[in-house]
């Protein structure tokens, strides 16, 4: 019988690898660049900024540029993002047509292309299949994914059959080049030219410069929103909430919430949080005669608050694990009463029994607020009653401090020995690491007054 032969993988020749996987050299660097995207997001915007040096900015053109900036930004945030990518609400034909037009004017690809990539981003967040993964650095997630070619085999796949059945999406994708040219540059120039005679200023400011600004603002959702801010709902992935990102992106800055509840038409759920996209969608649903939006989806507030509470508890547990709560009972030796008495005053120790747990209070005798004489009088004794109101109802801080002085458990001492043996079955709640959660008023040294015995007639 012939011995089995081993199979050795044949390496792919460098010239057959995708260009993104080939080493960077002086001879192939230009092949790594997506020149169409680079032209649209770097070269043309840079040329537009250069033209501002010699192009006067009139007040009407400035106001029109600002207005068209917000219109095209809403085309992305309210249209490409919340309507088509996440289907957070429904929109009538006139609004859908408006959003498709203004979205094209934002110069960020067709609805179909943009939404497909964004759905992949949500499905494969922070992985190699994420089209603009924040794990590859802030430059890549902001701009690099657009200007450098990527291996299409590595991209995450998503279902966009719903988009392929939308005639507006299909038309815009099929004729995107013409839609972009007209919506991004010709239309704003026509408005300024026909309106007040500023043809060139309309092209430069409302077209080129405005397009540059709306691009960079939207790209911040991929970069800045994964870089700065808080994570009130989940910290396992990079999305974050921050007011600055919200201000830049027309309300898309509450990204941690959005990644947890992507089907919600809101990004900000508090009334004081900046989310003009949410406000516009809502106002369009409240138009008295002909509302343009409907079926505004919101996630159940109960589930939202559960997520927030779980994250808060996680933060509390992390803080708790950094504090000294005393040795767990399961790690303490079990001593008999005679052993406890024998060790109570030996070798500088000062052992006292409280609620079945043996504590060494020797280092605290001189600091005891009630004086040395009182605390020395309970050494070698059961001070449960005295510590729990017999002499003084000790504070929560006193109970917490006492827990750091545990040295043993008394055999047969109340029910503490059972807690020690059963471990997870004890009376205390557990944190996510399985450690006992010691809340105020629940320290094991606290013993309440016994209930009155039942009287049998």
UniProtKB/TrEMBL annotation:
Residues 332-411 form the Cytochrome b5 heme-binding domain. GO terms for cellular component: endoplasmic reticulum membrane. SMART domains: Cyt-b5. GO terms for molecular function: heme binding; iron ion binding; stearoyl-CoA 9-desaturase activity. It is a multi-pass membrane protein. Keywords: Electron transport, Fatty acid biosynthesis, Fatty acid metabolism, Heme, Iron, Lipid biosynthesis, Lipid metabolism, Membrane, Metal-binding, Oxidoreductase, Transmembrane, Transmembrane helix, Transport. Its EC number is 1.14.19.1. The keyword Iron applies. Gene3D superfamilies: Cytochrome b5-like heme/steroid binding domain. It comes from the Eukaryota. Expected to bind 2 Fe(2+) ions per subunit. It catalyses: octadecanoyl-CoA + 2 Fe(II)-[cytochrome b5] + O2 + 2 H(+) = (9Z)-octadecenoyl-CoA + 2 Fe(III)-[cytochrome b5] + 2 H2O. The chain crosses the membrane at residues 33-50, 62-81, 176-197. Stearoyl-CoA desaturase that utilizes O(2) and electrons from reduced cytochrome b5 to introduce the first double bond into saturated fatty acyl-CoA substrates. PANTHER family: ACYL-COA DESATURASE, DESATURASE 1, ISOFORM A-RELATED. This is Acyl-CoA desaturase. It comes from Clathrospora elynae. The lineage of its organism: Eukaryota, Fungi, Dikarya, Ascomycota, Pezizomycotina.
């Amino acid at each position: 019988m012939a011995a089995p032969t081993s199979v050795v993988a044949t390496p792919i020749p460098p010239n057959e690898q995708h260009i993104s996987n080939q080493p960077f050299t002086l001879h192939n660097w230009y092949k790594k660049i997506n020149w169409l995207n680079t032209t649209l997001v770097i070269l043309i915007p840079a040329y537009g900024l250069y033209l501002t040096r010699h192009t006067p900015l009139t007040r009407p053109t400035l106001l029109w540029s600002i207005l068209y900036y917000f219109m095209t930004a809403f085309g992305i945030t309210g249209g490409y993002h919340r309507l088509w990518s996440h289907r957070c609400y429904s929109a009538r034909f006139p609004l859908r047509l408006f959003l498709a037009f203004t979205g094209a004017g934002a110069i960020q690809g067709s609805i179909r292309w943009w939404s497909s990539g964004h759905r992949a981003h949500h499905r494969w967040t922070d992985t190699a299949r994420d089209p603009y993964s924040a794990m590859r650095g802030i430059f890549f997630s902001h701009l690099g994914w657009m200007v450098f070619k990527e291996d299409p085999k590595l991209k995450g796949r998503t279902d966009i059959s719903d988009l392929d059945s939308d005639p507006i999406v299909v038309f815009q994708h099929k004729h995107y080049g013409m839609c972009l040219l007209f919506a991004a540059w010709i239309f704003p120039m026509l408005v300024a030219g026909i309106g007040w005679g500023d043809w060139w200023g309309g092209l430069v400011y409302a077209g080129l410069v405005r397009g540059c600004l709306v691009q960079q603002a939207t790209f911040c959702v991929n970069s800045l929103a994964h870089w700065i801010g808080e994570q009130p709902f989940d910290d396992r992935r990079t999305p974050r909430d921050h007011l600055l990102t919200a201000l830049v992106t027309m309300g898309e800055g509450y990204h941690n919430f959005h990644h947890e509840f992507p089907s919600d038409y809101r990004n900000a759920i508090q009334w004081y949080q900046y989310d003009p996209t949410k406000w516009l969608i809502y106002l369009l649903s409240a138009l008295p005669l002909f509302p343009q939006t409907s079926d505004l989806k919101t996630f159940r507030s109960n589930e939202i608050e559960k997520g927030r509470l779980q994250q808060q508890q996680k933060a509390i547990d992390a803080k708790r694990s950094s504090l000294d709560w005393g040795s767990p009972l399961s790690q303490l030796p079990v001593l008999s009463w005679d052993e406890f008495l024998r060790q109570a005053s030996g070798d500088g120790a000062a052992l006292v029994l409280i609620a079945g747990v043996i504590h060494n209070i020797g280092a605290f005798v001189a600091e005891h607020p009630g004086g040395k004489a009182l605390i020395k009088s309970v050494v070698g004794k059961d001070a449960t009653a005295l510590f729990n109101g017999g002499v003084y109802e000790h504070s929560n801080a006193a109970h917490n401090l006492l827990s750091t002085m545990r040295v043993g458990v008394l055999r047969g001492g109340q029910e503490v020995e059972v807690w020690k043996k059963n471990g997870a079955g004890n009376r205390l709640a557990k944190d996510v690491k399985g450690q006992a959660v010691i809340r105020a008023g629940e320290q094991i040294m606290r013993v309440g007054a016994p209930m009155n015995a039942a009287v049998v007639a």
